[in-house]
Design a protein that fits this description.
This protein has a single domain, classed as Roll (Nuclear Transport Factor 2, Chain: A), CATH 3.10.450. 28% of the residues lie in helices and 40% in strands. It has four helices and six strands, in the order ααββαββββα.
Length: 186
């Protein structure tokens, strides 16, 4: 006869599973916004969620559409949101977290269209809720800690270390390199 699992171990396993599911939500956010997969981006937020981004302070239900519009109007064609330190505390079907992010944006200057690099260091202060077994963001407040603006330095025709547009795969937002993987995110 197998020994019963102590309640404290069950709670630990449940919390670890919740933290893993929550981290997946955070990673899917970065994937959605950087790959321009607006459905994936939209689905990390509960429809009744609240977001405080500075440029957008409203419901999570409208966020993907606003970002798609802003990126299009400003011609932001390359972004990369890299997730760093992530601290999550779970309490039943609710959780809070603080996640560090470094976000790269390739942005043309409005005056002349010359590209610049905008790199931001920020933190996501999130509340999460699990509804019907699914974790999503219910509240997100973004704290911008620092940013750097500099001339755009990459040229894939030249590349670096022999890696260039002619010798390697170079990513482009909106291009799905692995459709079978992207389908698993939805």
């Amino acid at each position: 006869m197998a020994a019963a699992i102590p309640a404290s171990l069950e709670a630990t396993i449940r919390d670890l599973a919740a933290k893993d599911a929550i981290k997946e939500v955070i990673y899917r956010y970065s994937h959605g916004i950087d790959r321009r997969d607006w459905k994936v981006l939209n689905d990390v937020f509960w429809p009744d969620s609240r977001l405080e981004y500075g440029l957008y302070n409203d419901s999570g239900a409208g966020f993907a559409g606003i970002i798609e519009k802003v990126y299009g109007e400003l011609k932001i064609d390359v972004t990369q949101h890299f997730i760093g330190n992530c601290i999550i505390r779970v309490d039943g079907d609710k959780a809070i977290g603080e996640t560090y992010v470094r976000a790269f944006h390739r942005v043309p200057r409005p005056a002349d269209g010359v590209y610049e690099e905008v790199i931001m260091g920020a933190r996501y202060l999130d509340n999460f809720e699990c509804r019907s077994g699914e974790w999503r963001i219910s509240v997100r407040k973004v704290i911008f800690d620092w940013f750097r603006l500099s001339p755009y330095s990459a040229d894939w025709t030249e590349g670096a270390f022999g890696i260039n547009a002619a010798t390697a795969h170079t990513g482009k937002p909106g291009v799905v390199e692995r459709p079978e993987f992207t389908a698993l995110l939805r």
